[in-house]
Amino acid sequence: MRILVVNVNTTESITDAIARSAQAVASPGTEIVGLTPYFGAESIEGNFESYLAAIAVMDRVMAYDQPFDAVIQAGYGEHGREGLQELLNVPVVDITDAAASTAMFLGHAYSVVTTLDRTVPLIEDRLKLSGLWDRCASVRASGLAVLELEHEPQRALEAIVHQAELAVTQDKAEVICLGCGGMAGLDEQIRRRTGVPVVDGVTAAVMIAESLVRLKLSTSKVRTYATPRPKNIIGWPGRFAR
Amino acid sequence: MRILVVNVNTTESITDAIARSAQAVASPGTEIVGLTPYFGAESIEGNFESYLAAIAVMDRVMAYDQPFDAVIQAGYGEHGREGLQELLNVPVVDITDAAASTAMFLGHAYSVVTTLDRTVPLIEDRLKLSGLWDRCASVRASGLAVLELEHEPQRALEAIVHQAELAVTQDKAEVICLGCGGMAGLDEQIRRRTGVPVVDGVTAAVMIAESLVRLKLSTSKVRTYATPRPKNIIGWPGRFAR
Amino acid sequence: MRILVVNVNTTESITDAIARSAQAVASPGTEIVGLTPYFGAESIEGNFESYLAAIAVMDRVMAYDQPFDAVIQAGYGEHGREGLQELLNVPVVDITDAAASTAMFLGHAYSVVTTLDRTVPLIEDRLKLSGLWDRCASVRASGLAVLELEHEPQRALEAIVHQAELAVTQDKAEVICLGCGGMAGLDEQIRRRTGVPVVDGVTAAVMIAESLVRLKLSTSKVRTYATPRPKNIIGWPGRFAR
Amino acid sequence: MRILVVNVNTTESITDAIARSAQAVASPGTEIVGLTPYFGAESIEGNFESYLAAIAVMDRVMAYDQPFDAVIQAGYGEHGREGLQELLNVPVVDITDAAASTAMFLGHAYSVVTTLDRTVPLIEDRLKLSGLWDRCASVRASGLAVLELEHEPQRALEAIVHQAELAVTQDKAEVICLGCGGMAGLDEQIRRRTGVPVVDGVTAAVMIAESLVRLKLSTSKVRTYATPRPKNIIGWPGRFAR
Amino acid sequence: MRILVVNVNTTESITDAIARSAQAVASPGTEIVGLTPYFGAESIEGNFESYLAAIAVMDRVMAYDQPFDAVIQAGYGEHGREGLQELLNVPVVDITDAAASTAMFLGHAYSVVTTLDRTVPLIEDRLKLSGLWDRCASVRASGLAVLELEHEPQRALEAIVHQAELAVTQDKAEVICLGCGGMAGLDEQIRRRTGVPVVDGVTAAVMIAESLVRLKLSTSKVRTYATPRPKNIIGWPGRFAR
Amino acid sequence: MRILVVNVNTTESITDAIARSAQAVASPGTEIVGLTPYFGAESIEGNFESYLAAIAVMDRVMAYDQPFDAVIQAGYGEHGREGLQELLNVPVVDITDAAASTAMFLGHAYSVVTTLDRTVPLIEDRLKLSGLWDRCASVRASGLAVLELEHEPQRALEAIVHQAELAVTQDKAEVICLGCGGMAGLDEQIRRRTGVPVVDGVTAAVMIAESLVRLKLSTSKVRTYATPRPKNIIGWPGRFAR
Question: What is the ipTM of this complex?
Answer without folding.
Answer: 0.96
